């Protein structure tokens, strides 16, 4: 694996890495943004993927995606720590109730 961001992508998925990208952008970590953008280009992923698109991916695989969405905050905290950001740097309250 290329780097810690690629590991986070493989372990937690594109939706989590998209949130990490947004956090990196808001905290002006532009080198990290470039690395993440490179991974999205490498794997032909969309940085603008909505939560609905994320869930529809699971539906196409015959799964509900409810577990992944219900655990987004926990996954995000783990992924943030994995890449060296504070685990409580950002939460996804809008998705916690799903």
* Straight-line distance between termini: 32 Å
Helices and strands: which structural class? mainly alpha
The count of β-strands is 0
Indicate the radius of gyration in whole angstroms: 13 Å
Mean pLDDT: 84
What spatial form do the alpha-carbon principal axes imply? globular
Multimerization status: single chain
Main sheet makeup = none
Order of helices and strands: HHHHHHH
List segments where confidence is low: pLDDT < 50 over at least 5 consecutive residues: 93-98
Percent of residues in helices: 55-70%
Structure description:
The chain has 98 residues and is mainly alpha-helical. It is 66% helix and 0% strand. Helix 1 (4-12) runs antiparallel to helix 6 and helix 2 runs antiparallel to helix 3. The longest helix is centred in the first third of the chain and has 13 residues, at 14-26. The chain is globular, with a radius of gyration of 13 Å.
What are the key terms here?
98 residues, 7 helices, disordered C terminus, mainly alpha, 66% helix
Task: Briefly say what this structure is.
The chain is an all-alpha fold and 98 residues long. It has helices at residues 4-12, 14-26, 30-42, 51-60, 66-70, 72-82, 93-96.
